[in-house]
Write a structure and sequence with these properties.
By secondary structure, this protein is an alpha/beta fold. The chain has one domain (3-263): Rossmann fold. The protein has helices at residues 12-23, 57-71, 94-122, 143-162, 198-209, 217-228, 243-252, 255-263; strands spanning 3-6, 27-32, 47-51, 76-79, 84-86, 126-130, 169-175, 187-189, 236-239. 40% of the residues are buried.
Length: 268
């Protein structure tokens, strides 16, 4: 039975991935900060729930040692956990920026570094990093989040090239806006509000909470599963409502035209 570690498994894409990979007979190590949440899910026996705050590197080491002791190796590492700060660039505090990058960039890189020596030793494994189309397209009021996802994307590109001589695969998942708890519990507001930006920010927050144009997390989970089964050296997998069209428009439209499309429904 192959093993997969999933971070941020208590809701949204992570939870959908736990259920899908378990259905496909994987031994799933589902990690979350509050393991009490898992009791209501009634997951099957091949789901092993472990406590993990990805920014706590002592816990990361503990989970790594546990997996290697209990299951001998890890076949798939899925870096899914993260959150987003909403706010204009001018409204970010230093704490906002440090927290955003600590969770969305530094932590997944540290987890990769923890498991990569064993993967190199076994000359096998797949590392899947969930970024966002916001990792390649910047949106207003999401500068910090987009920047953090772009940083993880760049690290993934570097790993992809550095591990070419091995059988280890690097996969980047680029979802569009997904129907998850991101807008309620996975999104924070910047600490230094400024009236000038208030209308546009509130309009965007409301649209996200209503789930407009959102993709069901199960659809993104299926994309992740399909990527995990792809033995090619393909790096990127975009999916969900608007993801591919936006990336295509970004590539071919003039910048001024593309910006008008992005700003059409947001007051700036």
């Amino acid at each position: 039975m192959k093993t997969i570690l999933i971070t941020g498994a208590s809701s949204g894409i992570g939870k959908a991935c736990v259920e899908l990979f378990a259905k496909h007979n994987y031994q799933v190590i589902a990690t979350m900060r509050n393991t009490k949440k898992a009791k209501e899910f009634k997951w099957p026996k091949n789901v092993d729930v472990q406590e993990l705050d990805i920014t706590n590197y002592a816990q990361v080491k503990k989970v790594k040692n546990y997996i290697l002791k209990e299951y001998k190796r890890l076949d798939i590492l899925l870096n899914n956990a993260g959150y987003g700060i909403i706010g204009a660039v001018e409204t970010y505090s230093q704490q906002d920026l440090e927290g955003q990058f600590k969770t969305n960039v530094f932590a997944p890189v540290e987890i990769i570094k923890s498991f990569l020596p064993e993967m190199r030793k076994d000359n096998q494994g797949t590392i899947i990093n969930v970024t966002s189309i916001g990792g390649r397209i910047s949106f207003p009021y999401f500068g910090a989040y987009n920047a953090s996802k772009h940083a993880l994307d760049v690290f993934s590109q570097a790993l992809h090239m550095e591990l070419k001589r091995t059988n280890i695969k690097i996969k980047v998942i680029e979802p569009g806006f997904t129907q998850t708890n991101f807008a309620s519990s996975g999104m924070k507001t910047s600490e230094l509000p400024i009236d000038f930006y208030e209308d546009g920010q509130q309009e965007l927050e409301q649209a996200m909470k209503q789930g407009e144009d959102g993709t069901p997390p199960e659809e993104i989970a299926q994309l992740i599963y399909d990527a995990s089964q792809d033995d090619s050296n393909r790096l990127r997998y975009a999916g969900g409502n608007l993801a591919k069209p936006l990336l295509i428009m970004k590539k071919f439209l003039p910048q001024s035209v593309f910006e008008k499309l992005i700003l059409k429904r947001i007051k700036t």
